[in-house]
Amino acid sequence: MTKHEHYEALVVGCGPGGAAAAATLANQGVETLVLERGTDAGSKNVSGGLLYGEKSAPYTLDTLFPNFREEAAERPVGEYYIHNVAGRQVKTFDLHDIHHRDTEWCDAVLRRKMDSWLADRVHEMTRETGGGLLTNVRVNGLLRDGGEIVGVTLDELDPITADVIIAADGVNSELARDAGLMDWEDPEDWFQGVKAVVEMDPEVINERFGIDDDEGVAHLFSGDLFDGVRGGGFLYTNDQTLSVGTVFHLDSISEEQAEPHELLDNLLTHPLLDQWFQGEYEEREYAAKLVPDSKKVAHPSPHRGRLLLVGDAAGQMQAQGPIIKGMNHAVTAGGLAAEAFQEAKTRGDTNAAGELYERKLEEEGVLAKLRPKRYRATRAVSESSIVNKVGNAVLDSPVGSVGLKAAGKFGLLEKSFNSPFVLGMIPDTKMSYAVIPERIGEVMGTRVTDDNTVEPPELDDRIGDLTYDVDDPHIELQDNSFEASGTAVTACPVSAEDFGGGCYREETIKTNGGQEKVVSLDTQPCVECGTCAVVADTHWEHPSGGKGVEYKQG
Amino acid sequence: MRSVVLTKGVPDFREGQVSFDEDGHLERGKTPTVMNPNDKYALRAALQTKVRQGGQVSLMSMGPPGYAEILQEGMEDVYADDLYLLSDREMGAADTWATAMTVSTGLEQMEENPDLIFAGFKTADGETGHTGPQTEWCLHINDEMPEYPLITHVIALDVDQDEGVVRTKRLVEGDISEIETVETELPAFIVADPEFEPTYRKAEHRLRHKDFREETQQRASEFAEHLADDSEKEMTDWDRFTMWNQEDLNLDPDFIGLDGSPTIVSGVDPIPKAPSEREAQLVEPDDTEGMEDVLEEIQPYAAGD
User: Fold this and answer.
1) Options 3.40.50.2300, 3.40.50.620, 3.40.50.410, 3.50.50.60; which CATH number does B2-255 get?
2) Cβ within 8 Å, pair A132-B201
3) Which chain A residues are Cβ-neighbours of B202 within 8 angstroms?
């Protein structure tokens, strides 16, 4: 075998998971090279925006990186509410208990600022070990020797070998797929989130949300806002902006042929939000991303040979009702992966790192949070359509509403929303996402009388406002029949039916004696969320280093 | 590996910077002077050599003392370990020949002979492309200096220190469609083409590049501060900046500057004004009818579609 450039540890991706892994490795003096495909760390990253520091977590960003919260995060979020919406009827629950459970701190974050800040420190720390951080470099696959994973191959550099490869390359991890650890076959395994970062003066934020400079609020939304698509919305306060977004089960978006940007607009234009917008709306950035549903896809054994998966790449994203935690788990996993390598090295057998990592995830209770046994145990019953039909019927009946009222009176509903035990087994059905919240709003809610007059930008303006460095197409449509790939026209967050400026378009072509509906693809406005990789028949890769979309907020 | 890169200050011809008078003559006083853009490719080639082979990169220019800022720009935007300015009134108004004479003497004056000398492809103002090759010729006739084989239009290069050679790819006839590979022994004289692209295929190289970029920016801002300092300090008090005058170089005034320049400029054509792209019609605010026409014209665009 030819002699390749070699590092002790390779970390792919410099989001919170990669940064935590790299910092922990560097602290142990391990020679660590970090490779980031964005032109700057954070330029490829999107998250809803709440980062938790859990009391029970062995690793948090503020302990790994001094001054992290002061310098890289937005506002600390102390208040947490969920609004159950039925038309103009809204019933609000305070989710204080579940929000503060095991929470040391919780900050709203914007990923470009946060990851870029982390990357500077990571470079400094890893440079001292003989490695360092490089941006604009895309790792495109695994390097194998005799079937064993020994390193990575890259677009911009010659292959590199390493004793350990920590893949923190995000939800669309090419390494996880190359290793056969993850796939993107089933829409049921995924959520899709879209988000608008909305400009708002800090003083206006303080006034309209009733908070001080160093305080923040989180609001969740569920109910009949989203045309029956299973999911919900959120609003978080940043320093000078709001993050407003929606997250839906991808299978539901696909089945309903929903347009994600329109569902986001449903939230943005709902009367309930008038109290905060008051007719003013300036969108700084539109963004989208896939979110793994850890209940189903968090890999119980996220390693193969020298490759260890961390964060979204391993499906480590906890979304159970109003508990939405991803970045914190990625940080913990990153720290544990690094720790596992160091231990394996001390024992003189670096190949044991994967097994050790798996054990640590188990021991630290990460996996239990990500894949609650209760969900698996109750899923077969609670997600069956018969049970749901009966549930619907009961909720709609006078008896059902009396029950709800009674439960509301005794605070039982608010309590169960605040119970991690109950939330851990919430089934992924329309009933839990839309029907119950809607009935709660209907039966118990108060009427919102405000009128929301804001007009969010059209999709073409949203695309136009994003920054792109367009390269050769990075996605190939394998099967362009409408049957195989038509869902992408609606499900892709930058495409829409009867919209010519997006990625996916529906076209009718004349064939021998007939007409055929096909799909065409133009990857220029692609935001690299990965939706089409799941819902359409594509060959999906990331663009080369520094190419493609560049988020400024994230 | 010791590299020296040659550069020149030129008017900043970018739109919004450059200023022409009504006759189409360049208004030198109103147009800022910048480092000749083509020379940055040469500097990048030198930096690539340093990243891969180590060593030192010096940046040299000839011009008035104010050209220290040109050198500072190169140091900031690309890279330089140290800076050399050949400056003397006697050197003023030199043509390419007298310039080559002066610059080659400056190269000779350096403590050690460079392994590689880099020049850019023609300046933005003179556009002759002569100074680089003529400097090489002056080195050739200089008995004190080794031979520097000249390779022009270089778009990629790699130094093999063990073999003592430099391998290059160059454009034939300056055309990207035809590329030839040329190898020569060190030392050598390289003229970088604007198509030159540094390549860094190793992480180690990119990391070093990142270090060097950080260092040179730090140095450049130090130098900028030094230059901006109005106190008694001399420019040359900064230890990475060397300035040589005619006496330092022991040059015969008859062979440099205007006196040493055989070139006669027979005439200068003003740069023709570009035709305006749109037809404009002047409407005064009190011209009611005219304003109504304006309104009618712009209304369809104001609707937001």
Assistant:
1) 3.40.50.620
2) no
3) 5, 157-158
